Amino acid sequence: MNTNTLIKFLIGALPVAPVAGDFVNTETAETSQSPDQAYENYDGPTMQEEISSHSGNIPALKGVNNINVKTGDNFDPLEGVYALDNEDGNITDNIEVTNNTVDTNTPGTYSVSYRVENSRGGYYEYVRQITVSQAETDPIAPVPPTEAQLGNTDEETTESSPESSSVIFEGTDDLTISAGESFDPKDGVSVIDVDGTDISNQLYISGEVDSETPGEYTIAYAVFDSFGDPAADARTITVE
Fold this sequence. Notes:
13% helix, endochitinase activity, glycosidase, Immunoglobulin-like, 240 residues, Chitinase, 5 helices, Cry22Aa_Ig-like, alpha+beta, Ig-like_fold
């Protein structure tokens, strides 16, 4: 079976992508904005641009500026807050609120502590101040959108094809190993979604390598991106 055939076979064997309606509260969905509407007048940087501009081994935590909350209003410590890393991409899901003392029913100044860590053990911690008073609640800037959310994705990128997918497979180069050498198809392999999120844990892998028997073996990798579209890649493992 050649590589292209194996990729097509693996995509065909993937389970059907979940339908958003199966997981979304319909009452909320009727009133919530679509991504395009939410960012209709947005003129700031995209998530991809934010990630590209960041460097270093420590992740960045954004949207944690000090704000005022009007007495009695709701306060969500994660609203507008996001994190990024130059290798892991969008790691907002890694953010931990380690301390939150905010009582919006009582005027005063409170602290909220955050921590975020990347896959390499680099971490960043920050403490922001939240003031509760009779003044109006400060507006919160939205999390930067992806290119797709702004509608800037071109036709070649949006088509569901492994060759043109904007999902990035890393560590899937062809490899030569010696007979008897151990091989793990997941070792060093990662997948970055269109929004910069690491989705390596969602990989489907097909193919086997008999490291005791010299020859060429094909390993295929496939994954669904954040839009439910499949993407795949394959590599040849040569045992000498």
